[in-house]
Amino acid sequence: MEDANCNIDPVNLDSLNYQKVGRHNNPKGTEIDVHGIKIGGKDIVIMAGPCAVENERQLLTTAGAVHELGGNILRGGAFKPRSSPYSFQGLEEEGLKLLKKAREKTSLPVITEVMDTRAVEMVSTYADIIQVGSRNMHNYPLLKEVGQCRKPVMLKRGMNATIDEYLLAAEYILDGGNEQVILCERGIRSFETAYRNTMDLNAVPMLKKLTHLPVIVDPSHGTGRDWMVPALAKAAIAVGADGLLIEVHYDPKSALCDGPQSLSIRQFSQLMQDLKSLTKALGRSLIVTESALA
Ligand code: PEP
Ligand code: MN
């Protein structure tokens, strides 16, 4: 017998459920302008750099390569949310100062994570985009604090968060008055242990349907394995992502954090080459910026 409910969307999500992030507020999609780099437009943005800022040589060497190979935004954590308290926790303000130096040398805008409401003011003086990480997606005081900021915020999906919980977390930031929010799918926890997370690429078309916010994909944390990153990066663009967040290290074996998922400069170079032809085939292109901060 035919199931009377077979045409009902089992999740029943609707843009109208989301007062501010709902697609109905801006059906064409929101573009976020970071020093002339338009995130959420026709072209694909590449954010790349080390997981953590470790020292001047590591950051400047990696940042120089990211810039030369066509990356648009430099990433690097100064405050690291580590599972173990005995792991490297980040250089904190010293790391932010190194990001400032790399920013000046390469003219790449920077994205870096904030974990604590008390550090939001300091981080926002150094960062062009503030990152709220997966573990803090449910940290409502932090969401409210970055909602008061006038810098763009990239909110990563909680590793155990549903799409609905994720969009409601983004809603907090917009409701605080900050409309410059970028979403980032970074993989979710599943029963599978063969890779670090399960890269939920279903999220991309779903988020694009439900919200007007730009959607970035992070295949580095999504897979946890350098050799898987290029395949998932390409898949992310094919399903409609507005850009990628890629961990790159000039010497992944020596990385203090997330070495196994970090691309070497050679691997990153190959990926950028592949993305050029892929984006073209999809009627899009990589954003080209000579000197974003000039
Ligand atoms: C990161 O991007 O550095 C990071 C810690 O990622 P996530 O919050 O997705 O684990
Ligand atoms: Mn990392």
Report the portion of residues in β strands. 5-15%
Please provide the count of β strands.
Answer: 10
Poorly predicted parts: 1-5
Small ligands present: phosphoenolpyruvate, manganese (II) ion
Helix proportion range: 25-40%
Largest sheet: 8 strands, parallel, barrel
Please report the number of helical segments. Answer: 9
- Average predicted confidence as pLDDT: 95
Radius of gyration equals 18 Å
> What's the name of the CATH homologous superfamily?
Aldolase class I
Strand order of the largest sheet: 3-4-5-6-7-8-9-10
| Structural class computed from helices and strand pairing | alpha/beta
SSE pattern: EEEHEHEHEHEHEHEHHEH
What's the end-to-end separation, in Å?
A: 67 Å
CATH topology assignment = TIM Barrel
What is the general shape? globular
The figure for the number of domains is 1
CATH architecture: Alpha-Beta Barrel
CATH class type? Alpha Beta
